[in-house]
Specification:
Largest interface: A-B, 21 and 26 residues
Shape of chain A: elongated
Radius of gyration of chain A: 26 Å
Largest sheet of chain B: 6 strands, mixed
Strand content of chain B: 25-35%
Oligomer: heterodimer
Strand content of chain A: 5-15%
Order of helices and strands of chain B: EEEHEEHEHHHEHEHEEHH
Number of helices of chain B: 9
Structural class of chain A: alpha/beta
Distance between the termini of chain A: 25 Å
Structural class of chain B: alpha/beta
Helix content of chain A: 55-70%
């Protein structure tokens, strides 16, 4: 126990004195958050308009015409469910049509406006106005514009940073797990440090335990720092509990550390580590929904990426941050990561080489 | 307490078809400086590594301080100090921290400054290994092999690649270790080093020991057999010139 602790402290010391390590584990993810956080990608987002009520043909025609606008994504639903989506920040506008909507008759429209997304709602209202005008001016019998009454709704402000930060956090956990362990361990082996240790009574498992402990401590620090920076600088809406993030992070850490040890087992030199680690991490980095939602992926690809460990981790972290989910409700992600950790620990043990 | 601290009997090591160590037997007495000499590839390192518990023993036995190395590797590890040929230490820790950490691996407290003093490195306590010169690195490596206060210290080519001053400095350190009651087993391919430093040498060639005696006896036997050097021995050689010009006294490299 004492040995484990002393080794952990020494490993932590070595880690903290390594400038590159700090850059990779903390500064790079922070840089990503700052970069993507300030360069707003929200303009790329579609404006989501819910259309509720209105049973007749003209209502359908309006919804259809709105849907033809490229930047608009229209959903049809009951008023209650659409309002619920709006409050959750998943709609920008909800258009409530009267039972019998007739643009020609000048029936007033009620529009519920998402309070938290001014840019999107402004643009959405302009588009809506235009579509309505086109519709009514096409008919000679309509003398006036269709009146709209706006009704602001306090909605959860969901910004890109809320989406991005848990993703980048998961990415950082993956990268420092895979690269840190694989590269560090191969380098210790290559330089003969492990060999020197093996003439002492220390057992390899003592050393591995300390390494893993150190990495997991770094992982918790990554969570605290990134979430902290998000809250302080980006007004991150952190809905969940830190404890759940820790638990989910540790589960992910187990998978990625084991993958790191697996790669350290099959790579002979440091030069072989980087391409190997890239082969494993790049697809996940790009396809696991770290930067952009996976819903835009082609169906087949999306289905495959469903099972990536980083997808489980990023989805889990995101649900905790955005929705305040707790671990029991994220059983799917937890089980996915659990399964991955069993498989990767097994594989790591299988190929493990001290010398 | 037997005067023999290490008894090697019919030790063998094979790598595929290559017989690296072929029925090697020798014994080392307490407080001796014992040298294993031989050209590269003679099997010196393989022999040492089997004794040091680093390599499985294919055949034969090694008894160290009464313990069978093959059967009690842990107890043997507690009794030996090892300096490896191409091993290094953790980066980013200074010498003092490294020695303390190594002490933890043996589960014993360490006085790092005393150990560093032993190898004349007190003033580099805060330095990291990669900041040291070659000779200093070797001396630190020896200090590291002393953290567990071993009975027997193994030094694998400790002076290879060092300049003459650094080499002489190291000889002084090795003699000091012996004077503290420890036994030293070292390998070298420098003959003058073996002659100067070792009480007894075993000469290895192609995996076998071809001679085992004090250097003086080996030379005496050779001369007694009627051997004569073709060239007349000069009274000084180039190394003497070099040392004379650059200062005989120890220089901190």
């Amino acid at each position: 126990m004492r040995l484990w602790w002393k080794l952990t402290v020494a490993s932590l010391k070595m880690f903290l004195r390594q400038k590159e390590a700090i850059i990779w584990t903390l500064l790079l993810p922070l840089f990503m958050v700052f970069l993507f956080g300030f360069v707003s990608f929200e303009g790329l987002e579609k404006i989501r308009i819910g259309v509720a009520g209105g049973k007749d043909e003209s209502a359908e025609r309006l919804a259809g015409r709105l849907g033809e606008v490229r930047t608009v994504q229209v959903t049809r639903g009951a008023e209650s469910s659409e309002v619920e989506q709006l409050t959750a920040g998943k709609r920008h506008l909800v258009l409530v049509l009267p039972e019998e909507f007739d643009a020609a008759k000048g029936t007033a429209l009620r529009v519920l406006v998402n309070d938290g997304a001014p840019e999107e709602t402004q643009l959405g209202l302009l588009i809506l106005r235009k579509v309505l005008d086109d519709d009514t001016f096409g008919m000679h019998s309509a003398p006036d514009r269709v009146p709209m009454t706006l009704q602001p709704v306090a909605a959860r402000r969901s910004s890109y940073i809320d989406f991005l930060l848990p993703g980048v956090l998961s990415l950082a956990i993956m990268q420092s797990g895979i690269f840190g362990v694989a590269f560090g361990f191969v380098s210790l082996r290559k330089r003969g440090v492990l060999r020197r240790l093996s003439v002492t009574p220390m057992r390899p498992q003592d050393f591995i335990a300390a390494q893993v402990t150190m990495r997991l401590m770094v992982l918790l620090a990554q969570i605290v720092v990134l979430v902290g920076v998000g809250i302080v600088f980006f007004d991150l809406q952190f809905m969940g509990r830190l404890l759940d993030l820790f638990a989910m992070g540790l589960l992910g850490g187990a998978v990625f550390l084991a993958i790191g040890f697996f790669l350290a087992g099959i790579a002979r030199t440091e030069d072989q580590v980087v391409p190997l680690a890239n082969v494993v991490s790049l697809p996940m980095m790009l396809l696991s929904g770290v930067f952009f939602s996976r819903s835009n992926l082609p169906e087949a690809v999306r289905l495959v990426t469903e099972f990536f460990p980083l997808t489980y981790l990023a989805d889990g972290m995101r649900s905790i941050v955005l929705e305040g989910a707790t671990l029991p409700s994220l059983w799917l992600q937890a089980a996915g990561l659990g399964l991955w950790s069993i498989v990767s620990i097994w594989a790591a043990v299988k190929v493990f080489r001290w010398e | 307490m037997s005067s023999v601290i290490l008894a090697v009997d019919n030790l063998c090591k094979r790598y595929g078809d290559l017989v690296a160590v072929d029925r090697v037997s020798f014994s080392v007495h307490r407080q001796e400086i014992f040298g294993i000499l031989g050209p590269n590839g003679a099997g010196k390192t393989s022999t040492l590594e089997m004794i040091e518990t680093l390599r499985p023993i294919d055949a034969g036995t090694v008894v160290l301080d009464g313990l069978d190395v093959g059967r009690h590797p842990r107890q043997v590890q507690q009794r030996i100090g090892v300096q490896l040929q191409s091993a290094s230490f953790f980066q980013k820790l200074d010498l003092k921290e490294l020695l303390l950490l190594l002490g933890e691996l043996y589960g014993r407290p360490v006085d790092p400054m005393q150990l560093l003093g032993e190898v004349d490195l007190q003033d580099r306590a805060k330095a990291q290994v990669e900041q040291l010169s070659g000779g200093q690195q070797q001396r630190f490596s020896i200090a590291a092999s002393l953290v567990n206060d071993p009975l027997l210290v193994f030094l694998d080519e400790p002076t290879t690649g060092l300049d003459p001053q650094a080499r002489r400095h190291l000889w002084g350190v090795i003699r000091r270790i012996r004077s503290e009651g420890k036994t030293v087993v070292l390998t070298t391919h420098y003959m003058e080093e073996a002659e100067e430093l070792c009480d007894r040498v075993a000469i290895m060639d192609r995996g076998r020991i071809v001679a085992d005696a004090p250097p003086r006896n080996l030379i005496g036997d050779l001369l007694a057999s009627g051997f004569k050097k073709e060239r007349v021995e000069r009274l000084a050689n180039l190394e003497d010139v070099f040392l004379h010009l650059t200062g005989h006294a120890l220089q901190e490299e």
